[in-house]
Design the sequence.
């Protein structure tokens, strides 16, 4: 992981923590440079509990969500965080936003991109972000596409978060990452999000289940917790094991 560059693109303020917090922390611990882009605070569709307060406003919800995200990022060791403050539910992507994504990819030059997978049965924002990030990665690799004089990128590995409703979304595991060493930090980061407390237990159990799968598939009985991702492309190696 040392000297690797990972770009994480999260549709809403908490998505990256639920789905990849342990992996992000592991990469940072291993010496990787990680940049997080939070496209929206999830004010309209991801903050239901916060709207129960009397006199609540969109601006106040956004401020709370930003504070939660920054607290969670600090626990994971994330220092490079960008907030783009898009409106969610729905989240629209036109040419200007695609160009902004592409320019960010060219500037950061990631080896690995983590974002939403192509299918999420109950969240069209996630599907839209997945498609937009894929398009931006392709444009970043295309020599004929000019962006502020930035040099073209090489092909990066792209992985999709495991969606919340895994089976309903036809999710097929592609890569399982051991997060045993960072699992407690992931749980602490998840606890920052008061607007979605109902997800904390779910993603704790999901990580333990994926840890079980990691032990079974690998034969390594030291794995405790893991996170799972879809592969946008097949894995290329010099040998099978």
Sequence:
């Amino acid at each position: 992981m040392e000297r690797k560059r990972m770009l994480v693109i999260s549709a809403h303020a908490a998505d990256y923590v639920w789905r990849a917090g342990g992996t992000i922390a592991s990469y940072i611990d291993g010496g990787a440079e990680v940049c997080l882009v939070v496209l929206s605070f999830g004010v309209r569709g991801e903050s239901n509990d916060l709207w129960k307060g009397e006199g609540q406003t969109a601006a106040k919800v956004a401020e709370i969500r930003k504070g939660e995200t920054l607290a969670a990022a600090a626990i994971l060791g994330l220092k490079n965080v960008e907030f783009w403050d898009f409106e969610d539910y729905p989240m629209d992507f036109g040419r200007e936003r695609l160009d902004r994504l592409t320019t960010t990819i060219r500037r950061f030059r990631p080896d690995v991109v983590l974002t939403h997978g192509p299918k999420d049965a109950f969240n069209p924002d996630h599907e839209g972000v997945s498609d937009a990030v894929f398009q931006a990665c392709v444009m970043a690799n295309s020599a004929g596409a000019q962006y502020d004089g930035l040099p073209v990128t090489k092909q990066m590995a792209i992985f999709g978060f495991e969606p919340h409703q895994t089976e309903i979304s036809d999710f097929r595991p592609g890569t399982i990452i051991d997060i045993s060493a960072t699992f407690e930090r992931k749980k602490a980061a998840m606890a920052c999000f008061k607007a979605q407390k109902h997800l904390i237990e779910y993603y704790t159990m999901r990580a333990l289940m994926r840890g079980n799968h990691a032990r079974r598939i690998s034969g390594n009985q030291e794995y405790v917790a893991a996170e799972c991702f879809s592969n946008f492309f097949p894995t290329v190696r010099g040998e099978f094991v």
Notes: The chain has a mean pLDDT of 96. The first helix runs from residue 15 to 29. The beta strands are 5-10, 33-38, 80-83, 112-116, 157-161, 175-178, 226-231.
